[in-house]
Amino acid sequence: MGTFAAAFLFLAFSGPSANDFAAQQERAPRVRAARAHVTQTVAAHFKDTGVAYPPARLFIRAFKSEKLLEVWAAGPKGPYALIHAYPVCALSGALGPKRQEGDGQIPEGFYEVDRFNPASNFHLSLGVSYPNPSDRLRGTSPRLGGDIMIHGNCVTIGCLPLTDALIEEVYVMAVDTRAHGGGRIPVHIFPHRMDDEGMAWLSTRNAPPEMLAFWEELRPGFTAFETRHELPVVNVEPKTGRYRVK
Length: 246
What we know:
Blueprint: E1 10-11, H1 18-26, H2 29-49, E2 57-63, E3 68-74, E4 81-87, E5 109-120, E6 123-128, H3 133-138, E7 149-151, E8 160-161, H4 164-179, E9 186-190, H5 196-202, H6 209-228, E10 234-236, E11 243-245
Parallel strand pairs: 2-9, 7-8
Antiparallel strand pairs: 1-5, 2-3, 3-4, 5-6, 5-9, 6-7, 10-11
């Protein structure tokens, strides 16, 4: 899912400057229409949380079993605040990471927004940086797949879809953060909330031992953010692909 038009593929790091990026996005009819639709709603979300808009930093966190996508934001310093939680309107695959092309899985792990597509086949799309270094080391096939997106249209094979109305909010927030120098936008995807209750629930899913071990590996990243509302530093072991959270 998440097919993109090459003319509108903008990378978060190697792409145009912030000013050029903003101008290019605003030339896209869907972005202009989305802004007209959601400006007041987005402003209200930020007013309620006390974070200035556009924010200096944006963070997206998703929980597969709860079918929920959260958007968090922060100023240049200090903790993140939850801006809004959006229902994910369709899922594919099962709990657990994506390990090869065609498995229908939604990835689990630590990613970031790596492209913006305002001419998506699925209304508007934000690319997720799958496969990341961990995925490349742990994949079960030479073909790992790709084009994992947060998008509209409420259909999916491995992506995180929202309704068209809701992806407009998330997309505009991401565009404005990037256009105002916000840089990378991390995306963390978990099978479930990974507090004690959530881990107990996951232990009842009849998952194989290696899956439970993988979820325990993700848990420190969840816990670190839950404790301080600051993003943890996550590294990948160069030989095993295991995540290590500082």
